[in-house]
Design a protein that fits this description.
Strand order of the largest sheet of chain A: 6-7-8-3-9-10
Shape of chain B: globular
Radius of gyration of chain B: 21 Å
Structural class of chain B: mainly alpha
Shape of chain A: globular
Helix content of chain B: over 70%
Order of helices and strands of chain A: EEEHEEHEHHHEHEHEEEEEEEEEEEHEE
Strand content of chain B: under 5%
Distance between the termini of chain A: 28 Å
Oligomer: heterodimer
Distance between the termini of chain B: 49 Å
Chain lengths: ~350, ~230
């Protein structure tokens, strides 16, 4: 249950998965709430597809329990097929069947025994929502990468899933179609209230699309408050170890100097925002420009470009007091101890 | 050389004179082979599908046997079936020997390993994502199986055509099981063998042309399906 007493739509408890004896996933707890978009970020090989496949009930986890709307999943039970039919998933490089676009989109409806006369309108609606109007009769294999992904999403959409899992939906998509795909994904959630869990290695895309972002590293969920994720390498200097992202230096505690980690995160709530250089013992201080302001109810998220993009969370009161707005120059400051290596 | 030219002329004459016996033989051959192939496909495709998709003890041994059976000599099939269908044999009471059914049964066993083996290859060549996609879209096991077969349809058709090619061109088992009875079990291949031994080279050659035409058509169809399969 969540903090307001609602049963989570999907909940994973103590889920682990081993592949050839090696632990590839270890999720003590993960809760997916109804009607939200979740962005799972992590590098290649971090277990994103495995986790999505487990949540989609395609793979049975080695240990642990999954609850769908409060009920535990019974893998031996034939009802699993019915449960799986209330979800849908698209893959990083989707497979389209050797038929027309319409034939592909109709697949899930045929699996559910929807009569042919009823399919036509549903397919038309899905084609429209996916921005594929007029492509219904085309051979599916003749489409571009972006169109293929849109067909895969439309195909998943027609079955009106309660949860939609999207595995790297824009990974093989040309730049022209990325915006269209992102709009389609947001539209599905907005118009239908469909819960969406998407994986991506593009952090800014996750922030752009998702209500909640959770990072996955080497099969483990990093603490959910960690939002500013950067790749890079740890280097030594006379002033102490630092993390080189390629664009900025982030000072880290001495005890991290021998770590082999190549990812780092900073909690947005640990970052201090000021209009003038902030006098403190904090070693990490950068001047940058606010590129985005997102109202989160009682709090405000600022996206600040300092060479790397930081997401900072402040209260409404601070936001008003500092008179911040997009394109304002500010300083972001945080301690070396606010850094988490992953 | 004159002898060959004369035989060639006779054969052309027989073809264009719409000789009843020749066309009867051709029709009968096609009917036997198509029936045998249809039955072999009904059995062979599911066998091939199961072998390709299921993991079970003895699977690799079974695959080896299936591969070996592809090269099964036609006379061996004829001999074994003869052993079962002759009067004193266990299935003698069915009275099948020297009947069209016996020819069809022989051709069935000849094309079955070809269809089953090529089905294994066709199904294994289907992209594994097809199965995963079918499952994520809520397909049950039978719909998933049907989807795999549909994805492999061009290769499966090619497998069935190869089975037909084997059936229509075999002579050993049709001769032993059908007895080459005129207007009853005589096929193109058994007629060619008989007419040639009688010295009726023109008649044999005319049938040979028809057989070549069938085989050529099969190859064209094969090629067409392969191109279609690659392009889709």
């Amino acid at each position: 249950m969540n903090e307001i007493g609602e049963v989570a739509q999907l909940e994973l408890r103590n889920v682990t998965h081993r592949y050839n004896g090696k632990m590839v996933l270890d999720i003590p707890h993960l809760s997916i709430e109804r009607g939200r978009i979740y962005g799972m970020v992590g590098p290649n090989g971090s277990g994103k597809t495995t986790l999505l496949s487990i949540m989609n009930l395609l793979i049975r986890p080695t240990t642990g329990q999954i609850f769908f709307e409060g009920n535990p999943i019974q893998y031996e039970d034939s009802s699993r097929l019915e449960l799986r039919r209330s979800m849908a998933m698209t893959f990083q490089s989707p497979y389209l069947f050797r038929t027309s676009v319409e034939g592909n989109i109709a697949y899930g409806l045929r699996a559910r025994g929807v009569p042919k006369r009823n399919r036509v309108l549903i397919i038309e609606d899905a084609l429209q929502q996916a921005g594929l109007r007029g492509l219904g009769k085309r051979r599916a294999r003749e489409l571009s990468g972006g169109e293929t992904q849109l067909v895969a999403i439309a195909r998943a959409l027609v079955i009106d899933p309660r949860i939609l899992f999207l595995d790297e939906p824009t990974a093989n998509v040309d730049a022209r179609h990325i915006d269209q795909l992102e709009e389609v994904i947001s539209g599905i959630n907005r118009d239908r209230g469909t819960t969406i869990v998407l994986s991506t290695h593009n952090l800014s895309q996750a922030y752009k699309l998702a209500h909640h972002v959770f990072p996955l590293f080497e099969g483990r969920l990093a603490p959910s408050s960690m939002h500013n994720l950067f790749g890079g390498t740890i280097k030594a200097s006379p002033d102490g170890p630092y993390f080189d992202t390629g664009k900025i230096r982030i000072w880290i505690p001495q005890e991290f100097s021998t770590s082999a980690s190549n990812h780092l995160s900073v909690n947005p709530e640990d970052i201090i925002v000021s209009k003038e250089p902030f006098a403190s013992s904090a070693r990490n201080r950068y001047e940058g420009t606010i590129t985005e302001v997102v109202d989160r109810g009682g709090r405000v998220d600022l996206v600040v470009n300092v060479g790397e993009t930081f997401r900072v969370q402040i209260t409404n009161h601070s936001f008003r007091r500092l008179e911040l707005n997009v394109s304002a120059r500010i300083y972001v400051t945080f301690k070396a101890t606010s850094v988490h290596l992953l | 050389m004159d002898y060959l030219v004369e035989a060639f002329r006779d054969s052309i004459q027989l073809i264009f004179s719409l000789d009843r016996e020749i066309y009867g033989i051709v029709g009968r051959s096609l009917c036997f082979s198509l029936t045998a192939t249809f039955l072999a496909a009904l059995v062979g495709v599911p066998i091939g599908f199961l072998v390709a998709t299921k993991r079970f003890r003895g699977r690799s041994g079974l695959l080896m046997v299936m591969n070996t059976l592809m090269a099964l000599p036609t006379v061996v099939v004829g001999l074994l079936a003869y052993g079962f269908f002759s009067r004193q044999a266990p299935l003698g009471f069915l009275d099948l020997l020297f009947s069209p059914s016996a020819v069809i049964i022989g051709e069935f066993f000849l094309s079955l390993p070809i269809i089953a083996n090529l089905t294994v290859s066709a199904v294994q060549a289907v992209d594994p994502r097809a199965i995963l996609t079918a499952k994520t879209l809520g397909a049950g096991s039978s719909m998933t199986a049907w989807t795999i077969l549909m994805e492999a349809r061009f290769s499966l058709l090619a497998a069935i055509i190869a089975g037909f090619g084997r059936a229509v061109s075999e002579v050993g088992s049709a001769m032993m099981l059908g007895g080459n009875i005129r207007f009853y079990t005589r096929t193109m291949t058994t007629a060619i063998a008989l007419e040639t031994s009688k010295g009726e080279f023109g008649f044999g050659l005319a049938l040979g042309f028809f057989l070549l035409l069938v085989v050529f058509s099969i190859n064209i169809l094969f090629h067409f399906l392969q191109v279609r399969g690659r392009s889709s």
